[in-house]
Amino acid sequence: MVQVLIPSQLQSYTGGASRAQARGGTVDAVLIDLDRQHPGIRFRVIDEQGRIRRHMRVYVGQERTLDIARTLGETDEVLIFGALSGG
Which CATH number covers residue 29? Predict the structure, then answer.
């Protein structure tokens, strides 16, 4: 199981939980399993072309990734953040 940190703007999908657990050997597999548990959450992170949305950031540990096929280790943690913008 991989620990997933859920940003506040997506916690409505997880019943208010800031962390979740999901199974998968890649970032995408984890997001698919997370979506199975919390329907609709994957679409908020991944667009119709299978890419991480521009306003979302996904990290594996402390390293940002744009590759949803990135392989995960057993102890990896996936962190999802909503990008901040100012004006």
Answer: 3.10.20.30
Q: Is 87 a member of any domain?
A: no
Is 64 among the domain residues? yes
pLDDT in tens, the chain (87 residues): 999 999 999 999 999 999 999 999 999 999 999 999 999 999 999 999 999 999 999 999 999 999 999 999 988 999 999 977 655
- pTM, 2 dp: 0.92
Structure tokens at 60: 């594996």
